[in-house]
Amino acid sequence: MKTHKIAVLSGDGIGPEVVFETVKILKVIEKVFDYNFAFEDALIGAIAIDETGNPLPDNTLQLCKDADAVLFGSIGDPKYDNDPNAKVRPEQGLLKLRKELGLFANIRPIKAYNSLLSRSPLKKSRIEGTDMVIFRELINGIYFGEKFTAEDFSYAYDTCSYSRADIEQIAHLAFQEATKRRKKVTLVDKANVLDTSRLWRKVTTEISKEYPDVELDFLFVDNAAMQLILNPKQFDVILTENMFGDIISDEGSVIGGSIGLLPSASIGLENALFEPIHGSYPQAKGKGIANPMASILSAAMMLRYLGLEEGAKAIEDAVENAINNLIVTSDLDETSDYSTSVVANYVIKIL
Amino acid sequence: MKTHKIAVLSGDGIGPEVVFETVKILKVIEKVFDYNFAFEDALIGAIAIDETGNPLPDNTLQLCKDADAVLFGSIGDPKYDNDPNAKVRPEQGLLKLRKELGLFANIRPIKAYNSLLSRSPLKKSRIEGTDMVIFRELINGIYFGEKFTAEDFSYAYDTCSYSRADIEQIAHLAFQEATKRRKKVTLVDKANVLDTSRLWRKVTTEISKEYPDVELDFLFVDNAAMQLILNPKQFDVILTENMFGDIISDEGSVIGGSIGLLPSASIGLENALFEPIHGSYPQAKGKGIANPMASILSAAMMLRYLGLEEGAKAIEDAVENAINNLIVTSDLDETSDYSTSVVANYVIKIL
Ligand SMILES: CC(C)[C@H](C(=O)O)[C@@H](O)C(=O)O
Ligand SMILES: CC(C)[C@H](C(=O)O)[C@@H](O)C(=O)O
Questions:
Q1: Annotation-wise, does B126 bind a ligand?
Q2: Domain termination residue (choose one: B238, B258, B278)
Q3: Among A226, B38, B137, B321, which lies 20 to 30 A Cα-Cα from A206?
Q4: Given CA atoms B275, B277, B282, B286 in this order, what sign does their dihedral have?
């Protein structure tokens, strides 16, 4: 059996706690299914700035390039957020890593677990059966366009730019996914205002011709932000640009009752990175209350990407079992005092 | 009693239907409180393109400049949305009007009406008591920055730009409003990625010093999109840039159970415009099912702006009465078959 090299970047905040549990689980999976993983840790984010001055040290980047997959925790530290003079920021590490690895598609599945319906701020009748996946473009748009702040802070600008090729690449992935699902792609944009959005509509419409059995529809982002709450079941595959995807997918996380459940995969032509969508959540750091499920489910997405379907399925089933038995952290059940590692150990026991 | 000149721009979609009812109500208010209104109609949007080739004809703009206030319906027509080659678009009319009149602050109150709590997709316990107001910057940002599409559609870009003065102006309004309310301003931005957002944080922080009894906090827009659903009661005044405000305020409309209830005021130094936030809703056009409440409540905001507080209050009370008695359109009560004008006539009866 091939050895899969996995770069482990646990980062800041609750990242190290959830990634620690996930690696424990992967080591169990390794034995059960006779896989071979070679884990290697590296620094990124605020902790990398503290230790090296650089949010993405060269050896971290090189390790990720050489790895078969990257398992990522989270980054960010409030001490950088309100300092307009900060020259380096933790987020730059993640953004540069995404760009350097060419991770153009961020894939975020959102589903409502039956046993957690009562946890959602939304009424059960609205969300029961929700099962969508968001394809967010990840290495272009306003995140990566030219930026500028005048020295005297009299003005600033950011640029959102997209090429036809940027759009084609992720649109194909979204349509391919839709053919395996309910055959519907919804493009979320602001084509009544933005030039880039009109380019998205044009290119996506052209590409849709190659997938005649997939229906394509369009939603303005403001309307999408409403529809996601009013009627989430209408969505199958959502395709959107970087910033809209950031907003919409975090918003969509409320459907399932906790952002602590949602995994993501960031896919490029040669590399892939797997991370929970929850971010660093500094308030919870070190308290043992962080929900490890999003990270564990990200690892399942990683196994599937590596062709290790059995292991992926085993993890997903074990997580579902834990959720059904309410062996969950307090974000999902206020009466629970199960810690991060108790929950992870339960998953291990099932495996 | 002074005569107030009101420019009436009913626009496209359901705009004409809801504005028609609103003007009827204003004429009743005029008699009851002995006000003097001079209404004058003008074209804007798709209908203006159809009739004049221009989404904002010169005489419409002039009328609005000369008026004491503008009562606006909605604009937009699907036939322009998917045509990347269209040279004129209805939205350009509204955007140009906002810019020319200097309407820098779009003010969108969001509250949960007790009798409609059951209508909301959100659970009652989450939304009961929600009462916030969003201050959205309206004439800068990515809506108005330089835009470009290559002739061969190989790429496109949009620019988001803000000056210190743009931010100061609306930040002052937001802080002033907060002093009259629960004394909290939340700035929604993406300061971990965007230069313009970091400028917003810096300028807003400086201005907050002038309002020592108002608390200022910060939320990344992705997190805000979550918090708005998880815990809307935490918000008092939300301050944000143009695009984020567009998304967040439409999202927030779900709290009250229908976007058909939400009014807005767009304020400049010399002009003001009042419009429902719901947009043209072409599917409902001409069916008599459009909810007139958002437009009627926008008229109440207009009266308050004109210093006609009694009339404003009377309208708001009458609308609340109608809602409490479920004299509402079908968007608020599926069993209702009250039409747009039946609802409006009930409001008139109460007045
Ligand atoms: C940390 C931040 C830069 C990042 C983003 O906005 O992409 C995060 O919110 C995410 O969604 O992965
Ligand atoms: C019609 C459109 C241009 C407009 C906007 O995005 O500003 C609308 O959505 C609104 O919020 O008033």
A1: no
A2: B258
A3: A226
A4: negative
